[in-house]
Amino acid sequence: MLFSQTETALLEELDNARGREGVDIFTLNNMNVRATLSDNVANHNVNGYNIIDHGSFAQTSGITDVVQNSGNNVIIQNSTMVNVTIAP
After folding, report:
1. Is the torsion defined by CA of 6, 12, 17, 18 positive or negative?
2. What residues contact residue 78 under an 8 Å CB cut-off, 6+ apart?
3. pLDDT tens profile 42-86
């Protein structure tokens, strides 16, 4: 007759054996996108068109960012954060 003994794994041991074993994850994101626009005057301005056509992104890859503006006296603040984790 065969007998088997089982031991209970501690949660701490299981946590250390997960998919990110030995990989420290540290993320710090900080953006300072404060702007002030005041007392501006725009006279006799011509504005254009904002057109994104059906083929505008046909050959793109990776991260695409589009900022459009057809007005005057504006502030456009744009930020993109990309977090990449490479695990062995």
Report:
1. positive
2. 65, 67
3. 888 888 788 888 888 888 898 888 888 877 888 888 888 887 776
Residue spans per domain, the chain: 8-88
Identity of the residue numbered 5: Q
**Region 8-36: what's the mean pLDDT?**
72
User: In three state form, how does the secondary structure of the chain look?
Assistant: CCCCCCCCCCHHHHHHCCCCCCCCCCCCCCCCCCCCCCCCCCCCCCCCCCCCCCCCCCCCCCCCCCCCCCCCCCCCCCCCCCCCCCCC
Look up residue 52 and give its two tokens. Answer: 């994104």
Q: Say what the pTM is.
A: 0.43
- Find the length of the chain: 88
